[in-house]
Description:
By secondary structure, this protein is an alpha/beta fold. It has two domains: 10-324, TIM Barrel, CATH 3.20.20; 338-437, Golgi alpha-mannosidase II (Immunoglobulin-like, Sandwich). It is 29% helix and 24% strand. It has 14 helices and 21 strands. The chain has helices at residues 15-18, 24-38, 93-101, 116-120, 132-135, 156-172, 188-201, 220-226, 240-253, 289-301, 317-323, 326-334, 383-386, 388-393, and strands spanning 10-13, 45-48, 105-111, 114-115, 136-141, 148-151, 176-180, 206-209, 229-231, 262-264, 272-273, 283-284, 306-308, 335-346, 349-358, 364-370, 376-381, 396-400, 412-414, 420-425, 429-437. The strands form five sheets. Strands 10-9-8-7-3-2-1-13 form an eight-stranded parallel β-sheet. It has a six-stranded antiparallel β-sheet with strand order 14-15-16-21-18-19. Strand 7, helix 7 and strand 8 (206-209) form a beta-alpha-beta unit. Helix 6 packs across helix 7 (188-201), helix 9 (240-253) packs parallel to helix 10 (289-301) and helix 10 (289-301) runs parallel beside helix 12. The longest helix has 17 residues, at 156-172. The chain starts with 9 loop residues before the first strand and ends with a strand.
Amino acid sequence: MxxxxxxxxxxxxxxxxxxTTVTEQEVxxxxxxxxxxxxxxxxxxxxxxxxxxxxxxRSHGYNDGAPLELDAFGRQLPAExxxxxxxxxxxxxxxADRVHALGLKLGVHVMRGIPRRAVELDLPIxxxxxxxxxxxxxxxxxTWNPDNYGLAHDHPAAQAYxxxxxAQLAGWxxxxxxxxxxxxxxxxxxxxxxxxxxxxxxxxMVLSLSPGTHLSTEHVxxxxxxxxxxxxxxxxxxxxxxxxxxxxxxxxxAPFQRPGGxxxxxxxxxxxVGLRAERGEPRDSRLTLDxxxxxxxxWVMGRSPLMVGGDLPTSxxxxxxxxxxxxxxxxxxxxxxxxxxxxxxxDGGELIVWTARSDVDSTRYVxxxxxxxxxxxxxLPVSALVGHRDALAHGWTTRDLWAGGPGxxxxxxxxxxxxxxxxxxxxxxxxxxxxxxx
Length: 438
């Protein structure tokens, strides 16, 4: 597991635009745009979110008692009405082949536990004398999704079922598993069982755990030992209050970020969202451009995985250009020690400053955020950004990372050891800068 997710994954997830209803054609359309426009900047993972096995899936909710597509051993199969290439028991194999041919990885969402329908039918567990009823814990149920019962991890049937399910996913060529209903409450035994099942396949698959409501840093060592990603909040939508709430969470988790184990601040509700989603009607993201830059800058400085939720083919050129900004992928992959160094309530808002350092040269990164409703001009001591010793050693030039590149001229030069860096920050916005020594 240690060789996986050495940097935070970057990709697309179907949830924010299609909820439970995404189709094969829509997945492939998003994969094509990612390959054409975003892959050169690090975006390489396509994730099919929840209920791909429900032929009756609908917008705005889940179907209790839905006729889930299952194989003879109680394992979910893609609904052929939505994923026609799955016909004949081929599952996601053909879709994975097409995604891989584009140079991308394929991920799927799976719920904790075993389908209730498999238990009601008492289907056998492949290669054993047990059945789904032996594996199920009917007292352990998700509070928001009716598809599954939990697994009775004190019975060997539970691990046998999970081993078979994950082996099937691996056989289809799945690269990334988003397993839900794992962390709120924290299902210690389920986390270990999923990790064991993945290890037994022999295939490299990133394990991402959700949802993350009130997730405590006390779990960090257990999480690192068994998964690569873990959510640190409930679902995030295109509302400023949702973005603002992530400042405190990412600041709490930033000291724990390291290769192979990443706290995940949730998907990026950017571009065209809500087409057939859980919440709201079809819309362009309600976040302003400045708020979108704040979201991306904060996620990158906090080293959160980046999973964009908008429908890429129908999103604006402005959104695609924003995601393709070179600094987004570059800083996410090559910077470390991201942390909040200033958080001050002032008249009209909060000034929040994050710093990080490049792992490939002497560049430092600074993100100065302002949460107020009007623009703000901040004067930041250079020593507060790079440290007293480095502030004394040499001067610094700055580059605006949202400008898309280094540009012909530096934005500002600060030569005095006690000098101030003046930055103009929009409402709900960010000044995201690279500081280069000279």
